[in-house]
Amino acid sequence: MNKDLVTEFSTEWIKYSEYTTKKVPFGDEYIVPKKNSKPIKYTISEVADQMIMDYINIGKAFEFEKYKVKDMIIEFVNNYGLIGIISYMPLNFNYISSEKIFLNSNNDLGMEEIWDRKEYLEYFFPFDLKEKFKFKGNDITTIRDEETTDEEVFWGGSREFSIPFSKYYAEKIEDIGIIANRVYNQFIGAYTFDFETPYIERNFKGLDFFKARNITINAKAGNTHFSLQWVFNSLASALDTILLVKICDKNQPLRICKHCGKLFIAENVRAEYDTPQCRNQANVYKSREKNK
Ligand SMILES: [Zn+2]
User: Fold this and answer.
1) Domain extents for the chain?
2) CB neighbours of 277 closer than 8 A, spacing ≥ 6?
3) CA distance 35 to 20
4) Bridge partners of 255?
5) Which residue among 58, 103, 117, 132 is buried most deeply as judged by most CB within 10 Å?
6) How many angstroms separate the Cα of 198 from the Cα of each of 144, 192, 194, 202, 205?
7) Residue 154 above 80 pLDDT?
8) How far is the CA of 88 from the centre of ligand 1 (A)?
9) Residues near 150 by Cβ (< 8 Å), separated by ≥ 6?
10) DSSP strands (E only) in 138-205
11) In the predicted model, is pLDDT for residue 7 greater than 60?
C-alpha cells in the first residue's frame, strides 16, 4: 500500500482563537472557548507529528508530573482545540438521535454505561446547554446559528461531527488528562514491545487492545483527482489514528531520546537521540564509563 495514501490526513478541523477555564458549582474544572473567540480552521496532516507528541507528553506528565498537566492541556487546546470526548465515547454513533447513550463498560473515564441523553449533553455543556439545544418532549433540536469559518468542514452537517466544534462545548481538564494518559501507556506498550520472543510464544501478538474508533474514510474529489479523506468524529479518534500510523511507520518512527527521555520523530531509523547535544552528551558519559 502506498505510504503517502495511508498517512494523508487531509481532514480539516476547527479550534477557537482562545480558551478559558471555568468551574461548575460542585467543583469540576472545565476548559471552554472564550465568549468572543473566533473559530479557526486547520488541516490535521500539517500538525499531526507535533500534535501527537504534545498529546503523549500530557499523558506522561499526568502520571509523573501532575502539577504540569493543567498548563499543558490549556496549551494543547489553544493549539488544536478540544478533543471531542462527547463524540469519542458513545458506542451508538448517532447518539443525538438516540434517547439513551451507551458507553463501553470499562471506558477511560469510569463513566456510567447507560446515559439519559439530556444528562449526557449536560456533562459536556455544563454552562450553556440551552444556547446549543432546544428540548421538546423527546425531541432535541440543535441550534445552528453559530458562526463558523466554513460549513463544509461539518461534512454535510451530521450533528455528532459538528457538536465538538460548538462554542458552548466544554471538556473537563481531568478527562483530557486521563485519556491522554491511556494513549501514552499504549504508546509505551508498543515502544517496549518484545519482538525478541518468537511469534508463536508471544502472549499477545499485536496491539489489538488499541483500536481507533468511530472513523470512516471517503474519497474527496479535488480539481483533477480523488484523495483519501479520513473522517473523524473527534480529535481524540484522529489522535488514536495518528499514533497507530506512527507505531507502524518504519521510516520516521516516534522515539524516546536515550539521553533526555523526550519524545521525537526520528529522521532516520537509526537515530537514538533527539538533538546532536544529547548525542554528544551521551557519548561523553559513555567514554567516561569506559575510562573508569
Ligand atoms: Zn534528548
Assistant:
1) 3-249
2) none
3) 9
4) 264
5) 58
6) 56, 15, 9, 7, 10
7) no
8) 33
9) 12, 41
10) 139-142, 171-172
11) no
CA 289, CA 230: separation in Å to the nearest integer? 50
**What would the pLDDT profile of 196-236 be if each residue is shown by its tens digit?**
888 888 777 666 667 777 777 778 777 888 877 777 889 99
Over residues 109-123, the mean pLDDT reads 94
113 DSSP 8-state letter: S
Q: Which of 36-40, 95-99, 154-158 has the lowest mean pLDDT?
A: 154-158
Distance of alpha carbon 253 from alpha carbon 266, whole angstroms: 6
> Residue 252 C-alpha to ligand 1 middle, in angstroms?
17
Give the mean pLDDT of 168-176. Answer: 96
What is the Å distance from ligand 1's center to 279 Cα? 7
**C-alpha cell of residue 40:** 479557526
C-alpha span between 281 and 171 (Å, rounded)? 41
What pLDDT is recorded for position 152? Answer: 46
